[in-house]
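Justification of computing resources. Each target in the renewal requires a structure prediction run like the one illustrated here; the chain below, 257 residues long, is used simply to show the kind of job we budget for.
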Amino acid sequence: MTFTGAIGAVCMFPLRAIINACVALSIHPNALTLVGVIINVGAAWALAYGRFLLAGAVMIVANMFDFIDGKVAHQRQLQSPFGAFWDSTLDRFSDLALLVGLIYLYSKLGRSDYVMVAALTLIFSIMTSYARARAESLVEKCKVGFMERPERIVLFMIGAFTNRMAGVLWVILVLSILAVVNRIYYTYLALNGLPMPSRESAAGVFNRAFFWTDERATLAYDIWVIAILAFVWLTPPDFLGDPTANGPGLIGLLRAL
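Resulting structure tokens:
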């Protein structure tokens, strides 16, 4: 089992109990989706006022609802095209709310540079989802690109709990841009009957890293996760001009030793 797979397995223990309780109480999955969005708006409010620890805790609760709605729908056999549409649409509201909260915070702090970073992150986060939805109206499947919604949400929580939101925003922005490019390129190749990038030799290693087609909870996924966490936690906040954190970061502390 991989590192991320082990974490997922541990997290499933309490979630299974919650899912079973929701099934026993006959709670409709669409209601769970709506509750998750409403709670996420509370997390956005906490972010807007710089209350990062509170925001992280609220995001955990909100995204428990976001995760279990599909599981409850499956167990109660309530899957429907409208349910999928409802879930996808409200997910976009959650994404927008969190980033608007950060935009409000940075505007209050007079940091127009990070207002722009957060705004671009918002644009490309939404475009990541739109590119896939639009592509899959033309091709069978377009699940390429590393930075999808689960990765964004987990990174938001990491940024909130460790006060490293600037590093998180940069990671989400860069990898969301890459995900959009991946999906445009994949759709172009698929529609024109062209071969996908090779995964052989040294060029294949590069393609595998930057034209992402691997599944979660794989060794390649773990490597990306470790690289992202190293950037977020080791890069000095001062180097990024972080509006809410300062200091030398872990790299600076290790050098001081």
